[in-house]
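Example protein
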Amino acid sequence: MSFIWLQVGQCGNQIGQEWWQILANSVADTERYFRDTNIIVGQRGRGNNWAYGYRDTGMGTDRSLLERTMESFRREVERRDCYSGTVILHSLCGGTGSGLGSHLCQEIRDCYPAGHLLSVTAAPHETGDTPLQHYNSLLCLSYLQRYCDGVLLFSNDDVMKRAASTAEKKTFSSSGLQPVVSLTAMNAHIASCLAGLLYPVYSLKTRSMVSMGLEPWELIRSLCPMPSMKFLHTAQVCRRGTAFWDQVTSSVVQTVPRANPQGQLHHSVSVLAVARNSQDYSFLLSRDSVLMKLKQSYRCVSWNPSPIHCWTDPQNILDPSCRSHSLTVCANHSSAADVVSGIVGKARTMYDSGAYLHWYRRYGCEERDFQVAFDTLDCVVDEYNSLGQP
């Protein structure tokens, strides 16, 4: 089985670049082969506008990015003995990542309905990215909810905190504010989380130690049993030296949001823990205590009989050169509702005042598109907020 890795827009390609760098640094993946025909480049951006990116009309005699991408995608599918699905990297904010990314998810689902579709997407900062970021995020999230099987949702604000906390040296300004974190460091953190989750693990290899590439789809199967809730929260801790897994687990759960702004406690549908440690099987000795702590800290719902899943591998892809260990935890967690509701609230305020709507109508986006997006995401928020209620 094999899947296709699809990078869309500036953010998607920057995260992808860090992902491939991690693979290149490992012993087993020292060689990469990229086909030039799979690099699709447009002559201009999409103006940070979802509607412009989704419509994606060609420039002059040029074919659209969507058409060229799907043609290359079809050739890749036909090269595979068994196409299993697609992992798509993009952002919610930019015109290409949000608009073209949404349209690609729709096209891939329509053309290859049997394949899985996993989105890896970055939500913008609450303030300061672009004036249209809330509209773009609203419309893109509604398409991801409709067409994807699972969504690894990374909030830029949260990623910035995690990147700062893992930096070897922190430089605080005289005002005591959080130090400036580069985009490269943020993209590297997201790529590290992806490697922790999706790089082949011993637990899913065959008896002959062959990887079947099941990691993305087993992740979806384990964490997204209900189609109404598919937004996933990821946390990760990496350490060098002797592995004290209880301490590592405590560090992971400290990063998990406890309650929403209204004080309602968060809960999880299910949790996946991926433990990687270089030539060391010490995790197996601490496995039960680690999983129990995760189950309690993530507040797994009582109606799921098997809420905790665990994968292990005796190689730490994140730091293969020395004795190291990492724990990556992915959860279908109700904190996703905080991110989604924040985007919906800001987008609704702008929409009710009529702000910037002419930029979307210009490219064929109608009132119905916004109303469907609002209704879709309101249902998502309601579903997550109902977790844990009797």
Remarks:
- Residues 349 and 355 are 9 Å apart (CA to CA).
- Residues 367-385 form the longest helix (19 residues).
- The radius of gyration is 21 Å.
